[in-house]
């Protein structure tokens, strides 16, 4: 009986020389593979095919993992088993053995005994092979395991969406912290020069102006048109005029020192945020170029972060992508049996923002349908340039223009083109019921009248008749 064994170095074909092993129990077979001497008495090497490089080893190992008959293994069996009808072959994979039997009509053996024989040969394989040491086998196994793991995980240094998730989360934290620091700076320096905060709204320019001016009385001699302030001349004149009549209070040198340190923190955070935004844009263009082209790097990164990964986002249908980020509103609407939200994170996309309020829901649905296709292309493709997103974005913009024209011309109803007309409520006509009492048939005779009026002056004779 022949035994087929795959190793990190290549394919091995061994022959069982000790026929007693085949009739033993699987527990007793292990005793014949405890030492190299016993192994050489029980098994002999028929042929060995060594892999040329790691790439060929990865190709063969990938086929074995998927239980496929590769070209290299097929040629090896065909060359070394010239008479398959007279041989029996023990294999470690039952599915692979079925493919070999179907192609070469060879008797395949797969049972606990053969598995124990293969296990014993694998433990002593370096003693059966010539020219390959145990150290070489470990090195080849380590290299092949890394290559195979990288192949199975589809690993690529440029395709790590974890970096995007962390970067967009840090960007949100920086925005909150930067806004808090900027607000604190305005309130702090506003005690000394409150008019400056009303004239300048940008936080970076405001911090640079504080560093340039310092105390309020230095405004007259400060040149705010030069860097880093870069303020127009008319704004500078307004600031100097406001400094002359300012209602702020005086501060000390120590107060100004702490205010200037806060200005440095605001400017440092601003510079770091700009560099982080550039990094996020570069990463998004590499990992999800179609998604970035459709909605921008920031919204695309938020969608990936909300779904957990790009692959998880690709598994979502377009209806889920449309309301992703509005889960609280969705469950609240389902609980109260009201209208569900029409958009989530994609509400901030440019194509949705520039649409009319009456068209935002329809455009969000159209955008989500095309966006789901782009996400799947990005998740399963290795290109770094937008492909399907170019046509999809043109389609969404064209649909927005068509719907806007319909709305302006009056062909689209105010509440939406798909709204059904209201059905008038049913109000039944009140008719007289059949079989009801008819008061007109009542009989009122003269005697009845006289009987009713007998106390009003009837004669005694008439009273006697009654």
Order of strands side by side in the largest beta sheet?
3-2-1-4-5
Number of domains: 3
Secondary-structure element pattern, one letter each: EEHHEHHEHEHHHHHHHHHHHHHHHHHH
SSE-based structural type: mainly alpha
- The averaged pLDDT comes out at 84
Q: What is the 3D shape?
A: elongated
End-to-end gap: 138 Å
Runs with pLDDT <50, length 5+? 447-457, 460-466
The CATH level-2 architecture of the largest domain is identified as 2-Layer Sandwich
Task: Figure out the total of helices.
Answer: 23
Main sheet specs: 5 strands, mixed
Radius of gyration: 44 Å
What share of the residues lie within helices?
Answer: 55-70%
Fraction of residues in β-strands: 5-15%
Return the CATH topology of the largest domain: Nucleotidyltransferase, domain 5
Q: What is the class of the largest domain in the CATH system?
A: Alpha Beta
Tally of DSSP β-strands: 5
Oligomer: single chain
Pfam family, one: Nop
Subcellular location: Nucleus, Nucleolus
Keywords: Nucleus, Ribosome biogenesis
Family: Belongs to the NOP5/NOP56 family.
List keywords for this structure.
single chain, 466 residues, mainly alpha, Nucleotidyltransferase, domain 5, Helix Hairpins, Serum Albumin, Chain A, Domain 1, 3 domains, 5-stranded mixed sheet, 23 helices, elongated
């Amino acid at each position: 009986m022949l035994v087929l064994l795959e190793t990190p170095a290549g394919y091995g074909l061994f022959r069982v020389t000790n026929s007693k092993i085949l009739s033993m129990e699987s527990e007793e077979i292990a005793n014949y593979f405890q030492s190299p001497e016993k192994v050489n008495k029980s098994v002999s090497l028929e042929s060995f095919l060594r892999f040329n490089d790691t790439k060929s080893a990865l190709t063969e190992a990938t086929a074995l993992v998927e239980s496929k008959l590769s070209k290299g293994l097929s040629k090896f069996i065909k060359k070394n088993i010239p008479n398959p009808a007279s041989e029996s072959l023990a294999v470690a994979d039952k599915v692979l053995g079925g493919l070999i039997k179907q192609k070469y009509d060879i008797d395949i053996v797969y049972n606990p005994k053969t598995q124990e024989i293969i296990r014993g040969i694998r433990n002593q394989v370096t003693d059966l092979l010539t020219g390959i040491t145990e150290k070489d086998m470990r090195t080849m196994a380590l290299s092949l395991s890394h290559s195979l793991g990288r192949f199975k995980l589809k690993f690529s240094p440029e395709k790590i969406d974890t970096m995007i998730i962390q970067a967009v989360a840090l960007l949100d934290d920086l925005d909150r912290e930067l806004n808090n620091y900027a607000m604190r700076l305005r309130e702090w320096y506003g005690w000394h020069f409150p008019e400056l905060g009303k004239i300048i709204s940008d936080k970076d320019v405001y911090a640079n102006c504080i560093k340039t001016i310092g105390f309020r009385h230095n405004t007259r001699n400060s040149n705010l048109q030069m860097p880093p302030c870069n303020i127009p001349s008319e704004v500078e004149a307004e600031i100097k005029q406001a400094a002359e009549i300012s209602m702020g209070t005086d501060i000390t040198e120590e107060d100004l020192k702490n205010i200037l340190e806060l200005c440095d923190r605001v400017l440092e955070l601003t510079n770091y945020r700009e560099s982080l935004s550039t990094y996020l844009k570069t990463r998004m263009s590499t990992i999800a170029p179609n998604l970035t082209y459709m909605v921008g790097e920031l919204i695309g990164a938020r969608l990936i972060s909300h779904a957990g990964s790009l692959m998880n986002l690709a598994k979502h249908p377009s209806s889920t992508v449309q309301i992703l980020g509005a889960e609280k509103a969705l469950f609240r609407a389902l609980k109260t049996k009201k209208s569900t939200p029409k958009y989530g994170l994609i509400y901030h996309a440019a194509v949705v923002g520039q649409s009319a309020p009456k068209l935002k829901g329809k455009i969000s649905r159209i955008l989500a349908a095309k966006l789901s296709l782009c996400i799947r292309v990005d998740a399963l493709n290795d290109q770094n340039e937008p492909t399907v997103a170019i046509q999809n974005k043109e389609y969404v913009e064209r649909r927005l223009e068509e719907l806007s024209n319909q709305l302006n011309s009056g062909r689209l109803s105010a509440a939406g083109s798909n709204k059904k007309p209201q059905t008038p409520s049913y109000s039944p006509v009140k008719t007289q019921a059949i079989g009801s009492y008819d008061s007109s048939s009542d009989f009122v005779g003269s005697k009845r009248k006289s009987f009713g009026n007998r106390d009003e002056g009837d004669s005694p004779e008439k009273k006697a008749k009654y």
